[in-house]
Design goal:
By secondary structure, the protein is mainly alpha-helical. It has one domain. Helices cover 79% and strands 0% of the residues.
């Protein structure tokens, strides 16, 4: 069951690397087109950053999002895996979280209607609650 639980985490890691490549493939040409020197874009807010098209910035924003909340997911998965007691429900929740995060990414880097993105974020976050609860339960019993 450990491999089945770790696979969704590995898939989310691979997805994050795909978004990184997407970010690189869009940001560098956009910076060159805007004649934006990298030193002027060292902060992700401000005039230099705003010189880049929204569709370029939203890919970078999504990459940043994949560096934030999913860290909780990775930690929960590791706790569940180390417990040796994870079950199919845990695996199902892990896959649900990964699917929701991928959908969130695709939405953010394409359409980016904020309220729909927000709902996807909330639903994916709600998946973490039972996962965390299960991790705590398995460690306490």
């Amino acid at each position: 069951m450990t491999a089945a639980l770790l696979l969704p985490a590995a898939i989310l890691i691979a997805w994050t690397l795909i978004i990184w490549a997407w970010m690189l493939a869009t940001r560098v040409p956009a910076m060159q087109k805007a004649r934006l020197h990298p030193e002027k874009a060292k902060h992700t807010r401000g005039d230099a950053w705003n010189a880049l098209p929204s569709e370029v910035r939203q890919v970078a924003d999504n990459y940043n999002h994949l560096m934030e909340q999913p860290t909780i997911f990775y930690a929960i998965v590791m706790v569940l895996a180390v417990s040796g007691e994870a079950g199919m429900v845990d695996v199902g929740l892990a896959w649900a979280y990964v699917a929701l995060r991928i959908i969130h990414s695709l939405w953010q880097v394409t359409r980016n209607v904020v309220m729909i993105r927000f709902y996807l974020f909330v639903v994916s976050t709600l998946v973490l609650f039972p996962m965390a609860g299960r991790a705590i339960y398995l460690l306490l019993t």
